[in-house]
Amino acid sequence: MSVAQPLAVDALRVDTAVDIEHVSMRYGRGDAGTLALDDVSLQVGAGEFLCLLGRSGCGKSTLLSLIGGLERPTAGTIDVGGRRVGTMFQDSSLFPWLTVAGNIELSLALSGVPRRDRASRVEELLDIVRLPGTERKRPHELSGGMRQRVALARTLAQDCQVLLMDEPFAALDAITRDAMHDEIERIWMERELTVVFVTHNVREAVRLGDRVMLMKPSPGRMAREMVVDVPRPRRMDAPEIALRAAELHDELDRQERLATRTAEAVA
Ligand SMILES: Nc1ncnc2c1ncn2[C@@H]1O[C@H](COP(=O)(O)OP(=O)(O)OP(=O)(O)O)[C@@H](O)[C@H]1O
Ligand SMILES: [Mg+2]
């Protein structure tokens, strides 16, 4: 098991879209504070689909919020080269009092799209996420998978080049999730996006990622890099996906055992 830093796979990278250099993030002060990320360096290639995988609390959402510019790191730098960054949050919920169109239009308005162009852009975005004709529906009238598609359309409305996704499909049933994997893969390719996708689900990470970065907690760091050299289209249940997922599972199990031993030693 290699623990390599800096983590670089030159073959994948023509151009770096997200350059993370020695980033640390501490919430709060002193002993009472939490070191959520400790000296993380990572480069995401333009057009790459990168998955961040790790146990709860290892700093995945923190890293996304730093890339998205929602928070500033305590130390280190993050450079997106002026690219537009859109985020689909872990708890991204639609405004229930707005229609599907209203939710997407709000995002278009915030991105400066003139009012006269918004209806056609909404139609186009709903086509992209395969929900044509749902403009006038309200979120409660949609299934969980449909709501996530609208949330994705709302994020794409920002015309982003870098798409950050925080466990977007965690609450979906397996069949809907598989369909969403196909959709996000298609959109990523068609729009030539750079995607940073956070998940707890090892198979999902291997199914989607060009590369998977496994993180470890307390404090959050990069533990392992896996380049997923499996041709697309891929299937969650394909043996080559299962094989690589098993490797990452073993590493997570090791982390779990280490965490238990550390907790026992402290007690
Ligand atoms: N706003 C905040 N204030 C204080 N501590 C925070 C804040 N956000 C996150 N943390 C802490 O930072 C650490 C990393 O949290 P983060 O939400 O990034 O983890 P995560 O890997 O996304 O976890 P999960 O898989 O459960 O979503 C945790 O210990 C968390 O308690
Ligand atoms: Mg999180």
Can you put this structure into words, describing what you see?
It is built from seven helices and nine strands. The model is unreliable at 1-13 (pLDDT under 50). It is of the alpha/beta class and 267 residues long. It has a six-stranded mixed sheet, with helices on both faces. A three-stranded antiparallel sheet has the order 2-1-4, with helices on one face. The chain has a domain at 27-83 and 194-267: 3-Layer(aba) Sandwich (Rossmann fold), CATH 3.40.50.300. Strand 6 (162-166), helix 5 (174-190) and strand 7 (194-199) form a beta-alpha-beta unit. Adenosine-5'-triphosphate binds at residues 27-28, 34, 36, 54, 56-62, 90, 200, 220.
SSE string: EEEHEEHHHEHEHEEH
**Strand proportion:** 15-25%
Query: Can you identify the CATH class of the domain at 27-83 and 194-267?
Result: Alpha Beta
Largest beta sheet: what is the strand line-up?
Answer: 5-6-7-3-8-9
The CATH homologous superfamily name of the domain at 27-83 and 194-267 equals: P-loop containing nucleotide triphosphate hydrolases
Query: How does CATH name the architecture of the domain at 27-83 and 194-267?
Result: 3-Layer(aba) Sandwich
Quickly count the helices.
Answer: 7
